[in-house]
Amino acid sequence: MSERYYAVIGKPVLHSKSPQIQSAAFAQAGLPAHYVRLAVSDPREAVRVAREIGLSGMNVTAPFKEEVCKEIDFFSSEVDRIGAANTVRFTDEGTEGYNTDTRGILGAFEERSVSLRGKRVLVLGAGGAARSTLCALASAGATVTILNRSAERGQDLADQFGAACGALTIENLERGFGLSRIVINLTTARERIVPPELFTALHTVLDAQYGMVTPFLSDARAAGSTVLSGEDWLIHQGAAAFEIFTGRQADQQAMRAAILSAGVGADQPVALIGMMGAGKSTVGKELAARLDRPYVDLDAQIEANVGSAIPDIFRQRGEPAFRALESQALVAALEQNPGVISCGGGIVLAAENRRMLQEHALPIWLWAEPSRLAARVGAADRPLLQGKDPFSHLTELLRVRKKFYAEVCELVVSTHGFTPKLIAERLEYEIGYIRNGSR
To answer: What CATH number did the domain enclosing 190 receive?
Structure first.
C-alpha cells in the first residue's frame, strides 16, 4: 500500500475523535496512511480540496451527511435508503458513498451478544441519527417505536421504516419501557428526559452521545441495565469505514484506547505549517490579532538572530546550516509560548521538529495547490527556487513534504478563494472547539 491520506469533515465538536481512532488503526496495521481533519464550508469544497490533496477517502459528520450525497457518483444501498453518507472513497472511476452508522449500531449490540431480531425497541428522538438507526433496526428484524417531542416529525420517519410513533411524554415513556427491553436514546438533551425509576436490570440501553456521561446513561447504570455508549457506536462505525478504506479489519482495541488519549492543551501555541506561498505569515498575523496573543515568524526570527536575510544564509552557509538554525528557532519559540508561530515550509523535514510540533503546539496545515503557490511566490527571494521552474519544483517539494505535513497536523485548511482575514476567522472557530475539550 503506497502513502495514502484521509480526512474527516463536519462540525469540529462532532468529529473530534475520528482522527485519533483512525490514525490508531492505521498505525496498528502498519499502514503508511495519514488521517487529518479538514475544515471546509460545504461538501463541494471538501471534494475539491480532497482531489487537490489526493485524499483516498474521508468521513463525514453533521451537518454534511445529506448534502455530500450531491457530490457522490456511486451509492451503497444504505446511502440510497437513508439519504445520507458518512464515508466517502475516491477512486479513478469516481466518488463512492457509504453509510457505516448502521454497522456501528448493529456492531455495538453484537459485541454485547444482544440480539435485535424479533425484539421490541424503543427509540427516543427523531433527529439526524434516526434514519440510520431505523434502517439498522429494520434490517435486524426489530419492532420499533419512536418517541419524539414532535410526533408529526417522528411519524414521517416511522412511515418510511415501518415503525410506530408517539409523542415523548411521561405516559408514553412508561408504556414504552414496560413493553421494550431495548432503548436507544438519540436525543441531544443533557438534562434528564427519562425518570430513573423506569430503568431496570432487564433493559439494554444505547446512548448515541459520546464524550460525556448523560443522566440517561448514569441512571441506566445505577439500575443495573446493560449499557452501550456512544463510544461503542463510534468505534464500530469507524471500524467499518476503515475496512472500506483499506479492505482490512480494524484493531478495535487500538481504536478504543485512542479515544482516551490526551487532547491539545489550551495554552499551546498554534503552529502554521505548509508550503512557501501558502499564506502562513499573513494568516498568522491575522490569527494572532484575533486571539490577542503574541506572534512569531520563524524566518524573521532567524534573520534577526543571524543578522542576514534567508537567501544570504542559504548562499553563504548552505541548506543544512539553515535547517539547524530553523530547529533552534523553533525550540526558542516554543519556550516563549506565543499564540501563533508561522513556520518555514521545510520545518517538517526534521523528525525532531515534527515531534516538538506535535507535543508542544497545535499544528495547522495551510493548503494551496502548486499552481497557486507558483503564482504567489517570487523566485528572487526563495533560495530553493533559484534557477528552477517554480511550478515543477514546488510540485516536487510538496510530493516530498506532504506526508510530513499530514503526519504532524491536527487540521488542514485550504487557502484558495479566501482572504487571510476569512482564513483566520475559520481557524479561530476550529481552534475554539479543539481547546474547549471537544477533541
So the answer is: 3.40.50.720
- What average pLDDT does this structure show over 202-227? 92
Domain housing 194: 103-228
Clarify whether residues 127 and 255 are in a common domain. no
- In the structure grid, which three cell numbers stand for residue 352, read together? 525532531
Return d(Cα 435, Cα 266) in angstroms, integer.
5
Return the amino acid letter for 65.
K
| Strand partners of residue 413 | 39, 366
User: Locate cell 499551546: which residue?
Assistant: 268
* Residue 119: DSSP 8-state: -
Q: Which of 117-126, 305-314, 423-432 has the highest mean pLDDT?
A: 117-126
Q: 264 in a domain, yes or no?
A: no
pLDDT higher than threshold 60 for residue 379: no
SS3 409: coil
Active site residues: 65
Q: Is the pLDDT of residue 389 over 50?
A: yes
> Is residue 233, in this structure, part of any structural domain at all?
no
Q: What is the mean pLDDT of residues 348-377?
A: 93
Residue 320 above 70 pLDDT?
yes
**Same domain (yes/no): 165, 65:** no
Report DSSP state, residue 145: E
Provide the domain count of the chain.
3
Longest dimension (CA), the chain: 82
pLDDT of residue 436 exceeding 70, the answer is: no
Give the mean pLDDT of 38-65. 93
Strand segments, DSSP code E, in 288-420 are 295-297, 340-342, 362-367, 411-414
